[in-house]
Amino acid sequence: TGAHDLAAARTGRGARVRPVPPDDDREGLAPPTGLPIVPRDRVAAPASLEATPTNVMVNNPAGDAAGTGQAEESVAAIGSKLLVAFNDGQGFVSGNPYKDTQGYAVSTDNGATFVDGGVPPKPAGFSAWVWTSDPITAVNAKTGKYYYCGLASSDGTHNAIGLASGSFSGTSFVWDSVRVVRNELNTNFLLDKPWLAADSTTGNLYVAMTTYDQTVPGGVNWIDFTRSTNGGRTWSTPLQISDNQTNGLVQGARIVAAPAGKVVATWQAIGDTIVYDYLKYAFSTDQGQTFSLETTPVLYVPNFGTGAPGYNRERGIEFPSLAVDNTRGVNRGRTYLCWAESYNHLDDVFTSTSAKSEVEPNGLYGNATPFTPGDILRGSSSSVTDADMWSFNLTRGQAIIVWVDSLVTNATYTVRLFAPAPDSVQRLCYGGDLTSNTGLPATQTYFTFMAPAAGRYYLRFAPASGTSLIGNYRIRTKIGDIGTERGRDQRDVFVTWTDDGNTWSTPARANSDPTGFDDYLPEIAVAPDGCPYVMWRDHRNDVYGSRTQQMIARSLDGGTTWGLNQPISSAIGNFTTALSNLVPNQGDYNGLSGDARYLRAAWADARGASVDVWGTTIDTDFQFTICPPDTHTTAGSQVWARWTIANLNPLYPNHYVATFTSQRNWPEPADSLDIGAASSVMFIPMQLVVPDTAKAGVNRVCMNLRNTRNSKTIQCCLNITVIQGGVSVGDVAAPAFALAAPSPDPAPGAATLRFALSRATRATLSLYDVTGARVRTLVQGVLTGGWHTVAWDGRDDQGRAARAGMYFVQLEAEGRRSTRRFALTR
């Protein structure tokens, strides 16, 4: 097809953030509007939507110029303290004395509010230092030391990677040092896409990066790795971990510290065939001193010609995401690899010779030249204002391939695809060439789009503003041939995993949206519950897929299958209309990380007038909210107890395994598997049998509750005191059927209730208030004969604390009924 000719366009250094150049957006979007004034120190969290975790704006736009954008986030946290880094377009604003285009924010209240910290500090001795792009954060969970890493211009003639470190002191974040990881003369090497990892076990710091050799025409590149064993003061000589055979074709490295001193790395490599690109992988078992040879876990089909809807850069990002399970769960040490993949559109053959020429004037939607996908479009751009609009129909599930393959040397242009509604300006795809390359052919554009809904779509070809004239152009189009390949449309999200670094699982799709909706920039992390989570830009909640939300999915079986997709952004964003002075406006990555309890997410969000950083905290923990009260009983009786457990995860139900231990080796209840809905309280009632031979004294009985990934176990115990002799009702020995007086009376928040049955029979023990309303069903079912003890925790059937006052306990069994009155105090 000739699509392989586009490979040269994909090895450029577009990963660096840059200001928005003059563009071809002349369809009359609203001009920038003033942003709301927010106090500079904190931004409060808005109310969250039902079933969606609370969203918080991370950066503070007060004082920023209208249309300033923030994107490309990284988040690190310990406990309630968070550090978030991002690209900041305020550095591109004219007249701004600070040219730094990075920023950070901190939170000391578990992400409920953030303080915008402005520009990170700079290393001593570098007065002209400017932070430029690609910020990454990490934290050593044992020492509480936070790290900030990013690209920089160190003096105008050198480019560098810097590392700042700091820690929280109370509610303040204090930077303590800024080091230089690497500093290179611009004419020798260009550094790009650094990635930072902190190993809390060894204290080591690891950085992977892309290195471009500027002394070689075309800038041959490779993946380098360096480490520090002294907190970033000094760094090892860069070690190339990518194979020489892929020099010039690699980008987007990720690095993660794994258990037992292992370090794992992945990156993207442009393939040597027309169709496939590669995800590469290498690992170290000696704390980064040496690395294995690279392997290729995944061949995948990229859609490199365009980003997601609303994207403002003329090519897409296909970098992988990487995570390792560092919990104590059943999959400890497992490595997860995540990426976005298209259906196989790159091997489609363009056979049609049907031609369609533009009919002028056709610069507006109303007079667009119609065509049928499969036509070869021919036109001419006679001036820098001569944009041509084409229109075509797609049914739901049809995909179009667009290939701009014939332009003159030095031509710069854009080619966009627009949704038919609601206003015909909603961007779906964006390709082109905005850089004038003297003596080189114009960059070709090649992308695909699948219609999520039937309609009339628009394709626009235009010169980039202020550039040389285009002249004649040709655009090949066709309906995409969709087979049984892994990807279903323009992009889906996939995950594979390995336990040994050699054998990888069959890739599993994480997104469950209908076909036709783009899924972009996936990030993967392992939460403290031992489950991998994947987050991505998702477009299913917009008819034509032009607006976006952040979506997340979880796997309960270690990445083999993926469950319910849940939105974590509480508002739909529109990158077409939200202004940003950054390219790319969506960033090259988003932030997702797990700490000891929470999953932290941060992303570029277009819900407002400009693109800002928003984030959320997802609690993956579970807790005992009520332990049964201590009680006393006699040998040969049964004790009823109820444990109350809260699933704190706001998005997903959780499975728990309950086991019991008995200090005095009494018979233990059978293990149980229980399910708690998202953000719910669950009750686990159990009958504990006191042996006939039980001697007087205390027995400590404990419930041990663990999640099914075995990453955490919690314990809740009660003391059961065995009393010598029989239990009496008043001063009279207990008859065959009896209900003893509640003890104590009055009961200070909890009570012990005892009753006897003459034989095995169905029995119900209930609690009522003075109005006759049922408060709690304590026992209901077939019981053995003899004495039974119930520990009431002072709660109703919904787990709420009962009010102080008078209560009645009623026993119904053997065709008889008995009632006792007692008081509850608080």
The count of strands amounts to 58
Proportion of strand residues: over 45%
Computed CA radius of gyration, to the nearest angstrom: 32 Å
Instruction: Output the number of helix runs.
Output: 0
Q: What gap, in angstroms, lies between the N and C termini?
A: 79 Å
Mean pLDDT: 89
> How much helicity do the residues have?
under 10%
Low-confidence stretches: 1-5, 22-50, 727-733
Structural class: mainly beta
Q: Tell me about the biggest sheet?
A: 6 strands, mixed
Overall 3D geometry? elongated
What does this structure look like?
- By secondary structure, this protein is mainly β.
- 0% of the residues lie in helices and 47% in strands.
- The protein has no helices and 58 strands.
- The strands form 14 sheets. Strands 41, 43, 46, 51, 53 and 56 form a 6-stranded mixed beta sheet that branches. A 5-stranded mixed beta sheet has the order 21-23-30-25-28, with no helix packed on it.
- β7 (130-140) and β8 (145-153) form a beta hairpin.
- The protein is elongated and about 105 Å long.
- The termini are far apart.
- The relative contact order is 0.10.
Secondary-structure map:
Layout: E1 18-19, E2 56-57, E3 70-78, E4 81-88, E5 102-107, E6 115-118, E7 130-140, E8 145-153, E9 158-169, E10 172-185, E11 189-198, E12 205-213, E13 220-228, E14 239-240, E15 250-257, E16 263-269, E17 277-284, E18 295-300, E19 321-324, E20 335-341, E21 355-357, E22 369-370, E23 376-381, E24 388-394, E25 399-406, E26 413-418, E27 427-433, E28 445-450, E29 455-463, E30 471-479, E31 492-498, E32 508-509, E33 519-526, E34 532-538, E35 549-554, E36 566-567, E37 582-583, E38 591-594, E39 598-605, E40 612-619, E41 622-626, E42 631-633, E43 638-647, E44 654-662, E45 672-676, E46 680-689, E47 697-707, E48 713-722, E49 728-729, E50 732-733, E51 738-739, E52 747-748, E53 751-757, E54 761-769, E55 774-783, E56 786-792, E57 805-813, E58 816-825
Parallel strand pairs: 21-23, 22-24, 42-48, 43-56, 52-58
Antiparallel strand pairs: 1-37, 2-40, 3-4, 4-5, 5-6, 7-8, 8-9, 9-10, 11-12, 12-13, 13-14, 15-16, 16-17, 17-18, 19-20, 20-31, 23-30, 24-29, 25-28, 25-30, 26-27, 26-29, 31-32, 33-34, 34-35, 35-36, 38-39, 39-40, 41-43, 43-46, 44-45, 44-47, 47-48, 49-50, 51-53, 53-56, 54-55, 54-57, 57-58
